[in-house]
Automatic annotation (TrEMBL):
UniProt keywords, alphabetically: Cobalt, Lyase, Metal-binding, NAD, Nucleotide-binding, Zinc
TM annotation in the entry: none
Cofactor: NAD(+); Zn(2+); Co(2+)
Organism of provenance: Flavobacterium endophyticum
GO cellular component, one term: cytoplasm
Name of this protein: 3-dehydroquinate synthase
Enzyme class per UniProt: lyase
Ranges of residues in domain 3-dehydroquinate synthase N-terminal: 70-181
Location of the 3-dehydroquinate synthase C-terminal domain: 183-326
GO molecular function, one term: metal ion binding
Function: Catalyzes the conversion of 3-deoxy-D-arabino-heptulosonate 7-phosphate (DAHP) to dehydroquinate (DHQ).
An example Gene Ontology biological process: aromatic amino acid family biosynthetic process
Entry EC no(s): 4.2.3.4
Length: 362
């Protein structure tokens, strides 16, 4: 598909810049020229090594020694075992305090790569190059780096910002359809919690071209950045980003550990979480029946429904107890307060949570 050369202005996030498309490599090479790094270590999973590094490496202008460190793809490898392997590889290859890690890949690569960089020798510089739609609009903003503890998502981690984030939407051409859809979930969420007009753009995706997508990605990053800049440590408004994630993460974790279930992509689980939590918002009189129907219809047009059996509900409820957003032993929800607004710190009883699954299945 033809693409106009849309120059998108860099966005200043909390302590680092986010550069787009052609600007990105110019900024990266300038950074490499100005900082006396000892070596560059590129972290990539086997998928991004094959599909994305051939696009990335020709744009890199440096005389520094470059080592490519590859690991297995997927959420099931985002754990401390992989981190230990990566710390060992860095040590064996002679990485020091002046080394730079560049994470090229989806959210698993940037989450874990940022965590490894933040903890190796008490912290070395890293740059993130998100290559999936999900990582561009979600993992790129906010400085959250972390790994899973068993099936509990992102339980171990730090908030630490990269030197810069480079978003080049040309990488999206390497993505399968289901990965593209997965990223749309976070974009839908940004509209639902913050900007009704932005949400409404997704109600008809049929006429979307690549330039429109570039603009939607840019706006999504702007929305998330606006929220994070107000609340970097997640003490207040940043909790609004958890909409759809309280139940979504529990669903994702349950399907990840259960061998009788097909592992879900993050966005697939979050799409279900948003429908469930919209129903809870409806039952708490925070949104109207019309708004609930609009949300359901909008999400259903993009995502297939997940099949929940009765025996799935109890284990999913048990996973909620470990949600890292909980405080003082209570499960905290971020619920919609009309489309485009959010109410955080909402405590919901199990009965209503079970009702939301029954409604989802009906």
């Amino acid at each position: 598909m033809a693409r106009k050369n849309t120059l998108m202005k860099s966005i200043q996030a909390n302590g680092y810049p986010i550069h787009f498309n052609e600007n990105a490599y110019e900024a990266l090479n300038k950074h490499l020229a100005e900082n006396k790094y000892s070596a560059i270590f590129i972290f990539a999973d086997s998928d991004t090594n094959e599909h994305c590094l051939p696009l990335f490496l020709p744009n890199l202008e440096t005389d520094l020694n470059i080592e490519i460190v590859e690991f297995e793809p997927g959420e099931s490898n985002k754990n401390i075992e992989t981190c230990i392997e990566l710390w060992n590889v860095l040590t064996e290859l002679g990485a020091d305090r002046k080394s730079l890690i560049i994470n090229v890949g989806g959210g698993v690569v940037t989450d874990m790569g940022g965590f490894v960089a933040s903890t190796f020798k008490r912290g070395i510089d890293f740059i993130n190059v998100p290559t999936t739609l999900l990582a561009m609009v979600d993992a790129s903003v906010g400085g959250k780096n972390g790994i899973d503890l068993g099936n509990l998502k992102n339980q171990i981690g730090v908030i630490n910002v990269p030197q810069m984030v480079l978003i080049d939407t040309h990488y999206l051409a390497t993505l399968p359809q289901n990965e593209m859809r997965s990223g749309l979930a976070e974009m839908l969420k940004h509209g639902l919690i913050f900007d009704k007009r932005y949400w409404s753009l997704f109600l008809d995706l049929n006429n979307l071209n690549t330039d429109d997508l570039d603009t939607l990605i840019y706006q999504s990053v702007e929305i998330k950045n606006t929220i994070v800049m107000q609340d970097p440590k997640e003490n207040g408004i940043r909790k609004s980003l958890n909409f759809g994630h309280t139940l979504g993460h529990a669903i994702e974790g349950y399907f990840l550990e259960n061998e009788n279930k097909t592992t879900l992509l993050h966005g697939e689980a979050i799409a279900a979480g948003m429908i469930l939590e919209s129903y809870i918002s409806l039952k708490r009189n925070l949104i109207s029946e019309e708004e609930y129907e609009e949300i359901k219809t909008g999400i259903d047009a993009i995502f297939e429904r997940i099949v929940f059996e009765e025996k799935d509900l109890q284990p999913i409820l048990e996973l909620l107890v470990h949600d890292k957003k909980n405080e003082y032993g209570t499960i905290q929800f971020a619920l919609l307060d009309g489309i485009g607004n959010i109410k955080t710190g909402q405590i919901i009883d199990n009965e209503l949570i079970v009702d939301s699954f029954l409604e989802y299945n009906s």
